[in-house]
Amino acid sequence: MQAVRRSYLLWAFTILLTILASCGSRRHTSDTKAARAADAMANLKSKPLHRFINSWTGVRYKLGGLDKSGIDCSGFALLLQRDIYGKSLPRRSRDQADAIKKRSLDNLKEGDLVFFAFGGREVDHVGVYLNSGFFVHASTTRGVIIDDLTLPVYQRAIVKTGTLN
Hints:
Blueprint: H1 2-24, H2 33-42, H3 47-56, E1 66-67, E2 70-71, H4 73-85, H5 93-98, E3 100-102, E4 113-116, E5 125-131, E6 134-139, E7 143-148, H6 152-157, E8 158-164
Antiparallel strand pairs: 1-2, 3-8, 4-5, 4-8, 5-6, 6-7
């Protein structure tokens, strides 16, 4: 009886170790989207930009909104450009797209603007480039968030990138 019990305990201990080892063998969070977004934030050159984004992250989307009770994408880009870089932008994303000097996707710098057309050919969304393929924007479903520009949904919709004149 004692041998059976010892065998059972050894078997249970082996299973537990296997489970723990498999958890430990997973790739660490540095490969997750959230960890890569955190790395992009940590690598920002502008500390005021870092503070600005942190203070707005999670604010819900509200069409026409321009404060922390709700904001839309163009309002977020407008406030960010004004408060961090001292630059003025038009209020609507398609007008903002007309105000920039084109820059290729491969040459984007921190603070550059990224425009999308999700509803057709006209610009209907804007975000602000950070680094390492990440940008910040006011998502209609998730509010102000840092997102991965390399995701297919964004790659299909990107129509213009650039810097303010």
